[in-house]
Specification:
One of its GO terms (cellular component) is cell envelope. The protein is an alpha/beta fold. Helices cover about 45% and strands about 20% of the residues. It binds alpha-L-arabinofuranose.
Amino acid sequence: VLLAGAALLALSAAASAQTVGFSQIGSESGWRAAETTLTRQQAEERGYTLQFSDAQQRQENQIAALRSFIAQGVDAILIAPVVATGWDSVLQEAQEAEIPVVLLDRQVDSSDDLYLTAVGSDLVHEGEVAGEWLLGEVGEEECRVVELQGTTGSSPAIDRAQGFRNAIEGHANVEIVRSQTGDFTRAGGKSVMESFLQAEGGGENICALYAHNDDMAIGAIQAIKEAGLAPGEDIKIVSIDAVPDIFQAMAAGEANATVELTPNMAGPAFDALEAYWADGTEPEKFIQTESRLYTQADDPAAEYEARKDLGY
Ligand code: AHR
């Protein structure tokens, strides 16, 4: 028993001495800020040293960060990849150095042999949920939809666009009339929405906004108000993330629905890494987090209270 206890102590000491490199995209949204906070918290609770690198939305910064983590000989690398393409070489370098890589929240188009696992939601499904919600709202009525897309080339922008189109396919009364990137930011959402409103008769011709994240929806709400329309009523709004501010907007009747994306991607990632470090256990290649739809019927004020201190 004593020996087993000593072995366990040695194992937990080894686990707590781990150094993990984390290449984060940047701080474009409230959701991203929460993911960063939770990753830092999770690392601290588990006794790891976290080497944090902010890429400021640039893939070349992420590649440089990964190379520096490899040179340092970290025990694992987490990366939230800003875009889906262009990762093969650096992932191969990590593999040659025998450093496990875990993808957080976004996908890459490289072979899954090049990373240990990916933690994230079903991004196509999120878009489908948003589209199905809108179909339920409008029934047979004509609905001209404007779409604020996420960062061009990122997996959530590609997949959330696809999912929404999957949902409305075969429903000729619902049509996407304008679509442009707002880069997942509030400022981008506001300025692109301003141009949509101008192009669509001051907003008269728009029935709904589908935004690939809540921050862009919040920026767009501001633009809609400044145009003299009532967001949530004149223009229905559905978006993705479930950040506290969108619940505030929903409680005020200014947004209608959001699909939740958990910011705690690091928890499942570190669980998988611990099993791998302990005895080489290979996790599934995709560890899926839940996606849940919230509407104004779900007590948005209470949802805001529950999330407001979580680091968003
Ligand atoms: O990759 C996840 C997306 O990136 C979130 O939905 C968005 O808010 C973020 O910036």
